[in-house]
Write a structure and sequence with these properties.
By secondary structure, the chain is of the alpha+beta class. It folds into three domains: 121 residues, Anticodon-binding domain (Rossmann fold); 201 residues, BirA Bifunctional Protein, domain 2; 128 residues, YbaK protein (Alpha-Beta Complex), CATH 3.90.960. Helix content is 26%, strand content 29%. The chain starts with 6 loop residues before the first strand and ends with a helix. It is built from 15 helices and 32 strands. Strands 4, 8, 9, 10, 11, 12, 13, 22 and 25 form a nine-stranded mixed sheet that branches. A six-stranded mixed sheet has the order 1-29-28-30-31-32, with helices on both faces.
Length: 572
């Protein structure tokens, strides 16, 4: 038997920390640092230490197997991407400051790819020439880069991250839909095999483009993304969800201007008038990128959907105090009646059902109660600008929506011809005409998935890895080092586990039992075999299941068979 059959803790590079790092906020960030999985190299940049790398490779292998099962082919492109391609697609300027741009010694512009739509389109546009070569799906797993303004949350929002990105090329929409459906199912399997509790949700396509997209969210209280869902099966990111607010109808007999001193917020107004917030109307004043001012009206208990505003205006921001004054708007008291002619007005679609409004009177200290649309004021434009939230009605079945938070771990997109049109990528169709490729793209955040798993699998003592992703499956822990009984037994069990195909770490350190137990719990190996003098003398060992804390005494001669059966059943 080779001494390299298993790893010994004395040789494992996994420096642990006793205290939570000051900058770490989320459980995954704290625990991956403390357990010796990652180390911060600079803001948003992390080194993956041996334990993390083993788990990442397991995630990558699951991704590969599911991608290969769809017929996708793995390859690799340069991380460095020519700016020429990005100019052709129009994203060089549109992507914004998050695109990491560099120049070489000849002053040629490049970027470090956050995604690689342009690269893959350029790759195939001179090679895939006929409909007979389609469909074709290509993928890679590599580092990606995004110059985040505020890198935070460890691996969840860094400047360099590991991602699987795939791109499919099709002759028609039916072919695209089939691959999209195949990828949708594959992404569900990836989450399931990684033991992630997830929910697929309708999503906004953002900077990638296209009109159809689904995100796969790992459910987590600490997740950055908000989602709404219904027991009927509907689920959507709040940025993409259709808001159907429940309104309390205002039944005021006529429009009345009411003194509301010091009521500059909807909460203040509702409390003062003794009405629910969803009977009121809230105003948001924004300035679009061209300098035009807009006032947006939504139900009083809702916020505006910022992504919807991105689509409407491109660049925009909430008006400053100076801009409010320049547009003759009174902060906290803005309403549609006699509003300044300097601004344009948009109201959320739901407010078409609210014929009488409780809203600002455009006069300091006053609100209107019962202002009637069409009589007291006109709304020139309605649109879906309110953000969905819990309690809104499900757009599919009409029941109240529930809310949750999640971590986006993967996303699938139908791009259509966005990139092929822009970059002149065509193929010869069956009728002999030149047609643009119809495309899809599909991303999995590999390093993000590692953090999401830790967010779902941890307790007060550390990480509780599921077997499928654990860096090692069993820790063998002799409570004394150099003991004539314990050392040989520990090594014998470790060798036998290895020979049974189990990944083993042997804690051969000359440390107190409490230190060993704390480190093993922190690192989160799924099973621990504890070998003490008393139990060993009786031919027994203790097996601890990390996730549950359950302990059982097992004959030393049977422990390998017992754990091998359990572990093999839990692998991906």
């Amino acid at each position: 038997m080779s001494s390299s059959a298993f790893i010994c803790m004395s040789q494992l590079y996994a420096p642990t920390l006793r205290e939570d790092p000051q900058e770490a906020e989320l459980a995954s960030h704290k625990l991956l640092l403390r357990a010796g999985f990652i180390r911060k190299m600079a803001s948003g940049l992390y080194a993956y230490l041996p334990l993390a790398w083993r788990s990442l490779r397991k995630i990558e292998q699951i991704v590969r197997e599911e991608m290969d099962a769809t017929g996708a082919q793995e390859m690799m492109t340069p991380i460095l991407t020519s700016a020429e391609f990005w100019h052709q697609s129009g994203r060089w300027d549109d992507y914004g400051p998050e695109l990491m741009r560099i120049s070489d010694r000849h002053d040629r512009e490049f970027c470090l790819g956050p995604t690689h739509e342009e690269t893959f389109v350029d790759l195939v546009r001179n090679e895939l020439r006929s409909y007979k070569q389609l469909p074709c799906t290509l993928y890679q797993i590599q580092d990606k880069f995004r110059d985040e303004m505020r890198p935070r949350f460890g691996l969840l929002r860094g400047r360099e991250f590991i991602m699987k990105d795939a791109y499919s090329f099709h002759a028609d929409r039916e072919s695209l839909q089939k691959t999209y459906d195949d990828m949708y199912r594959a992404y569900g399997k990836i989450c399931e095999r990684c033991r992630i509790e997830y929910r697929p949700v309708e999503a906004d396509s953002g900077q990638i483009g296209g009109k159809v997209s689904t995100e796969f969210m790992a459910l987590a209280d600490a997740g950055e993304a908000e989602l709404v869902y219904c027991d009927c099966g509907y689920a959507a990111d709040v940025e993409a969800a259709e808001a159907k607010p429940v309104l309390t109808i205002c039944n005021a007999a006529s429009c009345e201007k009411v003194l509301t001193p010091g009521c500059g917020t909807i909460e203040d107004v509702a409390n003062f008038l003794h009405v629910p917030q969803n009977e009121t109307v809230k105003a948001f004043a924004v300035t679009a990128g061209d300098g035009q001012g807009f006032v947006l009206f939504v139900p009083g208990d809702h916020e505006v959907n910022e992504v919807a505003l991105d689509h409407l205006f491109g660049n925009w921001h909430l008006m400053t105090e100076e801009e409010l004054e320049a547009n003759d708007l009174v902060k906290g008291y803005i309403g549609p009646k006699d509003i300044s002619s300097k601004v344009k007005v948009i109201a959320d679609t739901s407010l078409q059902a609210q014929h009488k409004w409780i809203c600002g009177a455009n006069e300091p200290g006053y609100h209107l109660v019962g202002a009637e649309a069409g009589a007291d004021f006109d709304i020139p434009r309605y649109g879906a600008i309110a953000a969905a939230q819990a309690g809104d009605l499900c757009p599919e079945c009409g029941l109240p929506l529930k809310a949750a938070r999640g971590i986006e771990v993967s996303q699938v997109f139908q791009l259509g011809t966005k990139y092929s049109d822009a970059m002149g990528a065509t193929f010869m169709a069956e009728d002999g005409s030149e047609q643009p490729f119809i495309m899809g793209c599909y991303g999995v955040g590999v390093s993000r998935m590692l953090a999401a798993i830790v967010e779902q699998y941890n307790d007060e003592n550390g990480i509780c890895w599921p077997v499928a992703i654990a860096p090692y499956e069993v820790a063998v822990i002799p409570l004394s080092v150099g003991d004539d009984l314990l050392d040989p037994l520990a090594r014998k069990i470790a060798y036998e586990l290895h020979d049974a195909g189990i990944e083993v770490v042997l804690d051969d350190r000359d440390e107190r039992p409490g230190v060993k137990f704390a480190d093993m719990d922190l690192m989160g190996f799924p099973y621990q075999i504890v070998i003490g003098k008393k139990s060993a003398a009786q031919g027994q060992v203790e097996v601890k299941t990390r996730a549950t804390g359950e302990r059982e005494i097992v004959p030393a001669s049977e422990v390998v068979a017992l754990l091998a059966e359990k572990i093999i059943a839990q692998r991906a």
